[in-house]
Please model this.
Amino acid sequence: MRIIVCKDYEKMSDEAAKIVAAQLTLKPDSILGLATGSTPIGMYQRLIDMNKAGEIDFSKVKSFNLDEYYPIKADNNQSYRYFMNENLFNHVNIDINNTRVPNGEASDPVEEGKSYDAAIDAAGGIDLQILGIGRNGHIGFNEPDENLIMGTHRTMLTQDTIEANSRLFNSIDEVPTQAITMGMVSILKSKMIVLLANGKNKHEAVKKLLDDTITTSNPATFLKTHPNVVIICDEECYNG
Ligand code: F6R
Model:
């Protein structure tokens, strides 16, 4: 696991965007694993700028997002599908049919999970997975628990995550309590993983990535078993 500590969020977003750009240069038909949330927004803005400047091309890219609230309609402005369209897909030359977000309207979430993992495998696996991290150490919505789940599945959000995400809703009661998320193995099968974290409130979660323990109480610690992970964080997150 390598760590790149950047001066601030802007620099962190620059570094992350450079890695994605390099990936698309090396393999124009890359399979990208994408995250929502506040953290990757700066990186997405830079990727949009690079695409508009003709520096990177998304025309052959396929993408799979980590997670989606459940149940939620795709056109709800709180859905992760909506977020991705607004923050990236509508502004770059990606074919929207090549973008997949777990279906928050699936009548059978178990079937949705199976078909999601099968689609990732059929596409050849994720080349580059972008992750954020919860302040409780969750990746995707794999929340701290005694057991973690391997494949894409429906899950309950923890109270901590509901509170953290309530900043984006009118009230905490509006925050969905469930999600469909890629599982731990769905994530760990990716060829390369870049985890982004900024701000003091991620310090404790990220600190646990830098020792030599693995624990289901911080799911992100399982990234230590992966041969190709880069953490990009800002000084505030690193120093606490
Ligand atoms: C989002 C996701 C989550 C977030 C995490 C951090 O698709 O899977 O794990 O990455 O909750 O969210 P922010 O970036 O809003 O702090």
